[in-house]
Design brief:
about 625 residues, 13 strands, 5-stranded antiparallel beta sheet
Length: about 625
């Protein structure tokens, strides 16, 4: 036998190479990303240090400015910048000491700058303030500031701060270069990894086509010819050293098996393995072949079914007639395929349902030599079909009862609600002039809740009625419907409702489609956060057997995670005290659309605002809208 290279090993190696490339690419990306993140962190630390250095300078300048103002005016309020500068300096030094702790040079420079600042405070600032507070020593206070020691100390800490800043600017520039290099390296890794992966995949595709697809196509052609008993066909790829070659050699064995089967009549062995009754009846109504399933099903009373070969059907199947022995078998012997179902009654045994298929067997000249019969026991399948049919009827009845319950519940609950509302009104009349602010608020809240419950019941009743008695088709100009609704819903002043010219004329029930448009437009108006400048656009696009409508608004929109939730019953995204509504509008829309065989879904608007409601509506299109007929 030829040595086998093994397709699974070759493909596994290619897949392993792809995995290795992916792993190396991921590792390289991780390293460059880590380098980039470290550089970004270091750059951010440099920004903080430079910002704190500026704060250091400002704090010292504030102290100097406050001291000079105090020396000039003698007004204690002039010292406010001096005092606030001391506090800000302390806070800034804490931040700088924390930020430069890892840089020894900057730490030393900061200590020197701090020492200069502290010497200025102790040698210049504090003595001048104390002496200025006493009238007799004010000239001395001015002299302290005029000596020049303050300028020397200021120059010292400015020089140290400048050195720290220069160092951090160099660090910042270096880290910027590191970030840019990391970005470039990440892109390079992605491109190289993608190219290598594509090359490996292309190589795999070529190899699969050459080593697997083409040989399998040829083997499939050989198998088709073998099924037509063309035993002269040559099996290809027998010498191929892989699994396809193994398959080709298996086909060669199959071919030889067919030849041997014709020689030794192994058809019976094959047929006996089938879970169906396979037989052959010749054109003289004699048994030519029966498999073992026939013997088990019909209890022929023979140890070997081959003992009945050549006997008339009526002799073999005496107590239980052969299925379709008259009309169906006669039809098949006449040259037509025949398929039928029949209940099989057997003495002393449960009846069974069978499905039969009879196919004529013809000689090369077209003469019908007999009929091949295939009988399959479908008792379990029929039982399951009856059970499913019963469950479907039960489900239909349950749905009807549920809709009837919703209708009755919503209808019958209105009367007590009206009674409650009347009682509240009577109580308010009886207690007029006595009701306090909180009590009146609670009474108003009670009436609001009663009205909301009544609205909820109305919506529940509308939901239970949605889709009923709406099968009467009509010629509907959807653009005209939207324009009429634009006036009917009474939008706020400045709110615009646009019917796009793409809206078609349809042959469809008018009422449910109108209600869908009304609910969607009303929903967009009710939930708009800027109704004075709001806009709703209704457009359409043709599809295969349906029209896809889109209702687009520019309101606040809905987060993606709530796209499915909003179509549920009683679902609102805001508390009902903020937005009046029962949460039934979109549930009714969904029910109306799905009863027509359509579907509805949401998508986000543009620029992070707005919402698009898409729905399909099966219909008979009467043509696109033409403005010339308006």
């Amino acid at each position: 036998m030829p040595n086998s290279f093994g397709l699974n090993r070759s493909l596994g190696g290619a897949i392993g190479a792809i995995a290795l490339v992916s792993l190396l690419s991921s590792l390289a990306l991780y390293m460059t990303q880590t380098q980039q993140n470290e550089a970004i962190d270091a750059r951010g630390r440099s920004r903080q240090i430079m910002s704190s250095l500026d704060a250091f300078r400002v704090a010292m300048l504030n102290q100097e400015t406050g001291l000079r103002g105090y020396l000039l005016t003698g007004d204690d309020s002039s010292l406010e910048p001096y005092r606030s500068g001391r506090i800000e300096l302390d806070q800034t030094l804490v931040d700088l000491q924390r930020l430069v702790t890892e840089n020894r040079t900057e730490t030393d420079l900061l200590v020197q700058a701090q020492d200069a600042a502290r010497h200025w405070q102790t040698d210049i600032g504090e003595p001048a303030v104390h002496q200025m507070a006493v009238s007799a020593t004010r000239d001395e206070a001015v002299g302290i500031e005029m000596k020049g020691d303050g300028k020397r100390l200021f120059d010292q800490f400015r020089t140290r701060l400048k050195a720290i800043q220069d160092s951090e600017e160099q660090i910042f520039a270096h880290q910027n270069a590191v970030v840019e290099a990391a970005k470039h390296n990440s892109l390079l890794v992605l491109v190289v990894g993608a190219i290598i992966t594509l090359l490996i995949c292309a190589g795999m595709g070529i190899a699969i086509n050459r080593l697997i697809v083409q040989p399998l196509v040829l083997l499939a052609q050989v198998m088709r010819r073998l099924t037509h008993r063309d035993l002269d066909v040559v099996v290809p790829s027998i010498k191929q050293r892989n699994e396809v070659g193994e398959m080709a050699r298996a086909v060669e064995v199959f071919k030889k098996g067919l030849i041997e089967l014709d020689r030794t009549s192994l058809l019976r062995v094959t047929a006996d393995t089938l879970p169906a009754m396979v037989g052959y009846v010749d054109n003289k109504r004699r048994v030519g072949f029966l498999n073992g399933e026939f013997s088990r099903t019909f209890d022929l009373g023979q140890g070997d079914v081959s003992e009945v070969y050549g006997k008339p059907l009526i002799d073999v199947f005496g107590s239980t007639p052969f299925p379709g022995a008259r009309l169906e078998l006669e039809t098949a012997l006449g040259g037509k395929d025949t398929r039928f179902e029949q209940r099989l009654f057997r003495p002393g045994r449960p009846s069974r349902d069978i499905e039969a298929f009879y196919r004529p067997h013809r000689a090369p000249n077209g003469t019908v030599l007999g009929v091949v019969t295939l009988l399959t026991d479908i008792t379990d399948r029929k039982r399951m079909e009856r059970r499913l049919a019963q469950q479907a009827r039960d489900l239909l009845r349950s749905n009807e009862e549920l809709e009837q319950f919703a209708y009755v519940a919503s209808h019958d609950l209105k009367a007590p609600l009206r009674g409650i509302e009347n009682l509240v009104s009577w109580i308010e009349e009886d207690l007029e002039g006595v009701l306090t602010g909180d009590t009146q608020t609670n009474m108003d809240l009670l009436k609001s809740r009663v009205r909301r419950l009544e609205s909820l019941l109305d919506d529940l009743l509308a939901y239970s009625r949605a889709g009923r008695a709406d099968d009467q088709s009509d010629a509907v100009d959807t653009r005209l419907v939207v324009e009429e609704l634009a006036a009917l819903v009474s939008p706020p002043e400045g709110f615009e409702i646009t019917a796009d010219p793409s809206l078609p004329k349809l042959q469809t029930p008018r009422a449910p489609l109108t209600q869908v448009f009304q609910n969607l437009i009303g929903n967009a108006i009710k939930h708009h956060d800027r109704p004075s400048v709001g806009h709703v656009m209704v457009a359409a696009a043709p599809g295969e057997g349906v029209t896809e409508f889109t209702v687009t608004d520019d309101g606040p929109g809905i987060p993606d995670r709530f796209f499915d939730r909003v179509f549920g019953m009683f679902q609102t995204l805001k508390p009902r005290d903020e937005v009046e509504g029962s949460g039934m509008g979109l549930a009714i829309v969904k029910k109306l659309i799905e009863r027509r065989g359509g579907k509805v879904w949401l998508s986000g608007g543009e620029a992070g605002r707005g919402l698009k409601v898409h729905f399909t509506w099966p219909e008979i299109a009467l043509g696109k809208h033409d403005d010339t007929d308006r």
